[in-house]
Amino acid sequence: MPLEFELCPGRMIGGNHPCFIIAEIGQNHQGDIEIAKKMIKMAKDCGSDCAKFQKSELDHKFNKKALERPYNSVHSWGKTYGDHKRHLEFSHEQYKELQKYADEVDICFTASGMDEMAVEFLHELNIPFFKVGSGDTNNFPYLEKTAKKGRPMIVSSGMQNMETMRQVYKTVKEHNPNFTILQCTSAYPLEAEDVNLRVLTEYQKEFPDIPIGYSGHESGIVISVAAVAMGAKVVERHVTLDKTWKGNDHEASLVPSELAELVRSIRLVERALGNGVKQMLPCEKPCHDKLGKSLVAKVKIPKGTVLTQDMLAVKVAEPMGIDAEDIFKMVGKKVKKDVEEDESILPEVVEGYCKKRKC
């Protein structure tokens, strides 16, 4: 059984607990705190477990030249990349305001710390868990410092290979047992042939003592639902209020109706997964009673006859006789009374017959 742990207050993940669904708002809020609040409320209304943002301390995430480079994209919010990122970055006070609002609407609130100083701020903010974005997955000093904070962690694995992920696992595990790894491919939007859901199975083999999850950037919800069917215990999807808004992530994000359908579909699939024990269920009894087949006499069988298989047939019979599956067990047994042709062979007629579930 994979490790189970509390990710948010009162919310366990792993084992048989429901999949934890993260609505990744990221920076799809357009730099507007009121839009951000609307998206938090939308995430809650759609049934998500968590509303997540991305926090950067820009001077620690980028060097000066990266911030000064011209940014002429249709998605740009400024003349330079630094101007663009500053427009989208909420202040510490605004994060406190968003956290307070999330508490009011009763949804878990967290953010990816996109650099070490952002992690320090989020730790002071007392977020329930850290999310490590794919860009920092192979940043081992960052991973070690984050793991030592002692909060649960979710680690995405876009742009990495299995050997790197083994090292990630060892690095985090040394300091923090409560973490999960998400299969992720860092492309926006993501084509189906690049999703590689089978990595979920490989992660489950490589890291059997932690929950495994999925962070998706594909269009639609089908692939994310399939990930849950394959055992994903966390699903993260980007969300938006309008796919036509400025920003690279919107096209690969889910609008409210899609997010609500994702949550509904995941919960439906979880119900359908069952417990893995194959047995006849109570809901099947009406069909079994109506159409289940049992043993009947193919010919007239006098009292005291030793049964052979050519005396027996399998039919839908009234009343229901001995279960069809026991036909071979009847061979060599005696009947204690006459059985007419085409008559049901009842358990009490056969000497020494005892159905295990009844005896």
From TrEMBL:
InterPro entries in alphabetical order: AFP_Neu5c_C_sf (IPR036732), Aldolase_TIM (IPR013785), Antifreeze_III (IPR006013), PseI-like (IPR051690), PseI/NeuA/B-like_N (IPR013132), SAF (IPR013974), SAF_AFP_Neu5Ac (IPR006190), SAF_PseI/NeuA/NeuB (IPR057736)
What positions does the domain AFP-like occupy? 294-353
Q: Which Pfam families match?
A: NeuB, SAF
EC numbers on record: 2.5.1.57
Q: Which reaction does it catalyse?
A: aldehydo-N-acetyl-D-mannosamine 6-phosphate + phosphoenolpyruvate + H2O = N-acetylneuraminate 9-phosphate + phosphate
Where would you find this protein in the cell?
Answer: Secreted
- Provide GO CC annotations from the record: extracellular region
**According to the UniProt entry, where is the signal peptide?**
none
Please give the start and end residues of each transmembrane region: none
Keyword set for this entry? Antifreeze protein, Secreted, Transferase
Q: Which GO terms describe its molecular function?
A: N-acylneuraminate-9-phosphate synthase activity
**Which GO biological process categories is it annotated with?**
carbohydrate biosynthetic process; carbohydrate derivative biosynthetic process; N-acetylneuraminate metabolic process
What the protein does comes down to: Contributes to protect fish blood from freezing at subzero sea water temperatures. Lowers the blood freezing point. Binds to nascent ice crystals and prevents further growth.
**Family stated for the protein in its record:** Belongs to the type-III AFP family.
Q: Mind telling me what this protein is named?
A: N-acetylneuraminate-9-phosphate synthase
Question: Could you tell me which species this protein originates from?
Answer: Gasterosteus aculeatus aculeatus
